TrEMBL record:
This is DUF2911 domain-containing protein. InterPro entries: DUF2911 (IPR021314). Residues 29-50 are annotated as: Disordered. PROSITE patterns: PROKAR_LIPOPROTEIN.
Length: 191
């Protein structure tokens, strides 16, 4: 019995010594990364319109799109929540932005490699205006939009589908980018 108690006591002392040892730089940096990831996940879970990053290939290069993804939630989207004929940030919260790693064409017009905020001007009928703006780090979307910083404006015609997409999505897929929300689908040709 005395032997078991002494072994147990030795194990407790050893555990205490190990626990009191200073953490290595590697251990500390791992803890910071884990805390940072956990904080980002918690923030994303708390946002009514989660932050989404979509990636895909166009011309053999990876394109990424960063946007806040709002939900329909039974609301009237087009012409109400998102008014017609007014610049829309094409997402929620911060401005949506796209990272293009090489010069490309958008709806047949040249666009240099870079990061651009993405805006649209929805129309009740006909083609919508799609805007690429050089000011891509806008915290408040269209509230900070400056038309003078537009790099490219093109037109694209939406289609209206029977099935409704509850959450806004912007995917890198044929013909380049495809925006879906509610019953609207807006393809933007990028090559």
């Amino acid at each position: 019995m005395k032997k078991i108690r002494n072994t147990w006591l030795a194990a407790m002392i050893l555990a205490s010594v190990i626990a009191c040892q200073p953490k290595t730089a590697e251990t500390s940096s791992e803890a910071v990364v884990e805390e940072s990831s956990a904080a980002e996940e918690a923030e994303s879970e708390q946002r009514p319109s989660p932050l989404v990053v979509e990636e895909g290939q166009i011309g053999g290069k990876t394109i990424s799109v960063h946007y806040g993804s709002p939900s329909v939630k039974g609301r009237t989207i087009w012409g109400d929540l998102v008014p017609y004929n007014i610049v829309w940030r094409t997402g929620a919260n911060e401005a949506t932005y796209i990272d293009i790693p090489q010069d490309m064409t958008v709806e047949g017009q040249p666009l240099k490699a870079g990061k651009y905020s993405l805006f649209t001007i929805p129309k009740e009928s006909g083609a919508w205006t799609v805007i690429f703006n050089s000011d891509w780090e806008l915290e408040h979307g269209h509230f900070q939009y400056d038309e003078k910083k537009d790099v490219l404006r093109v037109e694209s015609t939406p289609t209206w589908e029977e099935n409704s997409a509850e959450m806004l999505s912007i995917k890198v897929e044929s013909p380049g980018l495809v925006i879906r929300w509610d019953k609207m689908k807006l393809p933007i040709a990028i090559q």
